[in-house]
Design goal:
It is built from three helices and no strands. It is rod-shaped. It has a domain of 63 residues. The longest helix has 32 residues. With 95 residues, the chain is mainly alpha-helical. Helices cover 82% and strands 0% of the residues.
């Protein structure tokens, strides 16, 4: 809390400047963008790969008319996309 009311506009101005500077640096960072791109990719790829492996195992155990590999792969991809979407929304809300 400022010692007197004359300091308050100065403090608010400084805080606003710090906030704008931090926002600009976060948006302009090449490494931040590459990191987010990589994280989203892995967030989708890992569940897809694991579900595909599960589907291959199910196909080897239960021979039927449906392809468990394809079914599990699509399910894993959907799960990965939902997780990535939630992560992007959380990160986007921190600006």
């Amino acid at each position: 809390m400022p010692k007197n009311h004359d300091d308050l506009p100065t403090i608010v101005r400084q805080k606003a400047h710090q906030h704008l500077k931090a926002t600009k640096e976060k948006q302009g960072s090449l490494f931040f963008g590459l990191g987010m791109f990589g994280t989203v990719g892995w967030t989708i790829a890992i569940p897809t790969l694991l579900a595909t492996l599960l589907g291959r195992w199910l196909d080897s155990q239960y021979h039927g008319q449906i392809s468990w590999t394809l079914t599990c792969m699509l399910l894993g991809m959907a799960i990965g996309c939902v997780v990535a979407w939630g992560w992007i929304n959380r990160e986007g809300g921190r600006k």
